[in-house]
Amino acid sequence: FQKKRVTYYLRWIALYHAYCQQNALTGHLSDSVTSFASYLAKDHEDWQVLQAKEAVRLFIYFTEKAQKTDSENSGVEAQQGWADIYKDARAYDDNGRV
Question: What are the residue ranges of helices labelled H in 4-97?
Answer without folding.
Answer: 4-22, 29-41, 46-72, 75-90
